[in-house]
Amino acid sequence: MTSSLHAFKAIVGKDLRTELRTMRSLPAMVLFAVTTFIIFRFGLDRTALSGSLASGVIWTTLLFAAVLGINRIFLPEREEGGFDAFRLAPVDRPVLFAAKAAVLFLYLVVLEAIVVPVFAVFFLPEWSGLLPLAVILLATNIGFAALGTLISSMAVNSRARDLLVPLLLLPLVVPLMIAATGATAPLLDAGGPSFDKFGTWLLVLGLYDGVFCLVGYAVFDFLLED
């Protein structure tokens, strides 16, 4: 347990330091999301969005921005022999899955901390729904991180990685998106936030998060060997 915890901290710290030095994932994710909001702003020719339309715009943008980070989460291990080094280390293999999922979760938190206020400036006349929205964002990030890490580990050694990740990820992430948009839409109503079925959608998100965290932890050992 102690060696696994040390390995977890070392991997997370290494990835965060690498990102701070190279800036090869987060800036691209943020730039993509902000650019997409600008396209929606002038493409829809609207200065305010509410309800399901606002929810759809924000979650569609966050989903495709997250794909950019998912594509690159295992890239250092592939390019620098990190997989071989980890196989030789005396720690449990799923520790790498947990560490990479934690890094991806942090990437998503930073992304949303930057781009959700930008979305609010562009489209939301009423900001009171942003605080409960943070709960939905965090719950959804867990599912994103678990599923994205699992898919990325399967696709990292493929030459068609950039194509394979979206093809595998998007069908599996549909239930997560349905729950996230369903919970977000009442929070962004023009008349103020509503908490209709808020608890139900949170339970759905929690169930999805739990399933993919357990699946990823259970099968990652076999994926690492392959």
Task: Give a structural overview.
The two termini are 25 Å apart. This protein is mainly alpha-helical and 226 residues long. The radius of gyration is 18 Å and the shape is globular. The model has no long low-confidence stretch (mean pLDDT 86). It has helices at 2-22, 26-43, 51-72, 75-80, 82-88, 94-123, 130-155, 161-184, 198-225.
Features:
single chain, 226 residues, mainly alpha, 9 helices, 81% helix, 0% strand
Brief account:
It is built from 9 helices and no strands. It is mostly helical and 226 residues long.
Number of contiguous helices: 9
Spell out the helices and strands N to C. Answer: HHHHHHHHH
Binned, the helix content reads over 70%
How much of the sequence lies in strands comes to: under 5%
Main sheet specs? none
The rounded distance between the terminal residues' Cα atoms is 25 Å
Radius of gyration: 18 Å
Shape: globular
Q: Average pLDDT across residues?
A: 86
Overall SS class:
mainly alpha
How many distinct beta strands? 0
Contiguous low-pLDDT stretches (5 residues minimum) are none
